[in-house]
Every structure is written in C-alpha cells, then in structure tokens.
Design brief:
FAD/NAD(P)-binding domain; 5-stranded parallel sheet; 370 residues; globular; 2 domains
Length: 370
C-alpha cells in the first residue's frame, strides 16, 4: 500500500488518529472502525508487518497443536474497504510537544490522537551485554516469527540424541514454553531459569500453586537464578555454577521500545506507558496505550474508548488482565484457568483454551473481508 503523507491534505477538515503498532487491541479497533467509523476522523495504522502473530499460541505451536498459519491474523482483510490507511514503516520516536511520529525513514506524521499498541521487544545488543554469548548460542523468543522459523531445526535433531534445554526467563510465556518443550521432547532435560524470582510469583496464588505442582510433575528443573553467559553446550549462572545446555531459549530482556524513553510520555520504572483506567496516558489526554506496552496491560475496550475520545465523549474503564480470565497452557493435554482467586485445571480447560485461541486468531477476517 502507498505511504500516507506526513500531513493530511489541506482543507479536509479531518482529524488524524494514528494507531501505532498492530497489536491485538488495534485489531479490535480496525474491526470496529470498519463497521462504525467516526465522521471527520482519518485513521492510519503504522506497522511494517503484514500480519499479527498471536504470541499466546506459541506454546501450542511448539507442541504441534497449531501450524504457523494458525497463529496469525492477516492485516489486509481488516484494512480493505475500511478507509483506514496503512503506513508500512517502523516507528522511531514520538514527539508529544509537536504531536508527531518519527518514522524509520526520517519522515514525520502529525496526529491529533495517538494509540500505542506495539507490544514489547528484545534488545539483542543489551541482552548480549548482560548475557555474553546470547547472540551466538541463544534462540530468542521475540519476534515470535523468528522463533517459529528456527524451532523446526530443533525438532529435526535425531530422536535418540540426548538434549538439554534451558528456558531463560520465568514469566508466563517462559513457564508455558518449558512445559510445551517437555511435551514434545519427553526424553530431554528441561530447565526453567526464573531470573531470580520464585516461580510463577507474578501470578495469583491459586495459579502459582498449580504451576509449581505441574512443573514438578513434568520433571522440569526450576532454578531461582539468572543466566550470566552462554557458551557452547552450557549456560553460566549467577551463583557461579554451569548448567549443561544444548538449546538455550532466551525469554529474558523483554522491554518496551527504547524510543518511548524520549517521547515525553510519563513512563513507569520499566519503561511502560502509565495509563489510567481508560487506557489514556496520565500525562497526555490525547494519547492511549494498550496491551503489554502499558501499565494497565489490558487489551479489551480500546476501540470503544478511542471512538468516545475522538467524538468528545468520556471513555469507560476497562478490565485489567488480573481482573480478566487467565488461561495458562501446561503442555498439550492440560491447562490452568484462573479468575478472581479461583482456579481449575485439566483437559477440558486445554480444549477451552485451544478454541479461544483459534477464535481469537481468525474472527477478524471473517467479520470484515468483502
């Protein structure tokens, strides 16, 4: 598609809403806008990607439950005939004083409203500094498309070869990947290196206890430690020990895009955009942020709140991820569901998660394609 000009044509009288990034929240916005556009507002989507990869489906792909094409949503069917313009560039910065987005080709685009849903990144240079050898020996989880392209090489190794796998980084993705790898490599040694925190400490207590039991049941070694370096066949640990490791999976060093630091937006200590209950920046009322790049870490409700904001109406509070239903895969045949301090586990939950994943990945094109 052709690039969008740096400013709207003179005399159009239109305001400009920029959707920065093609995250899950913005897929919802594209769908809603195609059905119910707001008069007098031009919407532009800034992303170099042709499709969105649903990262929550990555463990299922590792176990063979999903094929790569099952895990993506194509953007073109969402944009087609919607009046939304696509700019196929990377963002390089935000200037909130001039209300402009700097693109990677040096051009700038003015916005009246801005929504950020870029997701998080892995800065390989920074990770290499903290874990020397990461670039040479590690398999990075992000971007997920890169991980997906490399994972088949692991599975092509002879079945009788003894392998040792270490997942470095103990967030939800790391936990799910460790159990997915145990499922597809049952004879290999699998270790989860948490980064120094107790395993699943970021999850509600009921889910944490189930996770701990499942990791023990699946014979996955948990090290409350951190990796300080990678060498051929081993990982160096903060305690000074060396861990045999043929396949290090790097799920650490995940952070907000570095260019946010100079944006002028209020950020928290980890670089996330600080937002209120309406997904609105606490420092700039015409800027919204959703998903993992924001402190609210919620995905639902952004489309309605943006439509309200550009129409001069008040947005509504949205559910945070802690308030919403949480689903965590435990391999292929089991999953954990948690909600408001309650939790259940089993094959039925795994089936439920699979159906939810597939519906999430494929519902948009069916609604908007013409």
């Amino acid at each position: 598609m052709t690039a969008f000009p740096s400013t709207l044509p003179p005399g159009t009288g239109q305001k400009h809403l920029i959707l920065l990034g093609a995250g899950q929240s913005h897929l919802d916005v594209l769908t809603q806008w195609a059905v119910r556009p707001v008069a007098g507002v031009q919407v532009s989507l800034v992303t170099p990607l042709a499709q969105y990869f649903h990262k929550g489906m990555l463990p299922g792909l590792v176990t063979g439950l999903y094929a790569p094409e099952d895990c993506v949503t194509a953007l073109e069917p969402l944009i087609h005939n919607s009046g939304i313009r696509r700019i196929t560039r990377h963002a390089a910065g935000i200037d909130t004083q001039t209300q402009t987005i700097l693109l990677d080709d040096g051009s700038r685009i003015h916005y009246d409203w801005l929504s950020i849903n870029t997701g998080l990144t892995q800065d390989r240079s920074r990770i290499e500094q903290s874990i020397p050898g990461a670039r040479e020996f590690g398999l990075f989880v992000r971007p997920p498309e890169g991980f997906v392209s490399m994972w088949p090489r692991v599975m092509e190794l002879p079945a009788d070869v003894s392998r040792s796998v270490a997942v470095i980084g103990g967030d939800t993705t790391g936990i799910e990947l460790a159990m997915a790898i145990r499922y597809c490599l049952p004879n290999s040694a699998v270790t989860l290196i948490t980064g120094g925190n107790p395993v699943a400490s970021h999850l509600p207590g009921a889910i944490q206890q189930r996770v701990e039991r499942m990791l023990k049941k699946q014979n996955i070694t948990v090290l409350i430690d951190w990796a300080t370096g990678l060498q051929r066949g081993e990982a160096l640990l903060g305690c000074g020990a060396r861990l045999a490791c043929d396949i290090p999976i790097l799920n650490t060093g995940i952070q907000a895009p570095s260019w946010l630091a100079k944006s002028g937006l209020t950020l928290d200590d980890t670089g996330l955009v600080v937002v209120d209950a309406y997904q609105r920046s606490t420092s700039h009322a015409n800027v919204f942020a959703a998903g993992s790049v924001s402190t609210l870490a919620g995905d639902a409700g952004l489309g309605s709140n943006l439509a309200a904001a550009v129409s001069g109406m008040e947005p509504r509070p949205v559910l945070t991820r802690k308030q919403a239903l949480q689903l965590l895969s435990c391999g292929r045949d089991s999953a954990i569901a948690g909600w408001h301090g309650l939790s259940v586990q089993g094959r039925l939950v795994a089936w439920w998660k699979e159906r939810s994943d597939r519906r999430l990945a494929h519902r948009w094109p069916q609604q908007t394609a013409t």
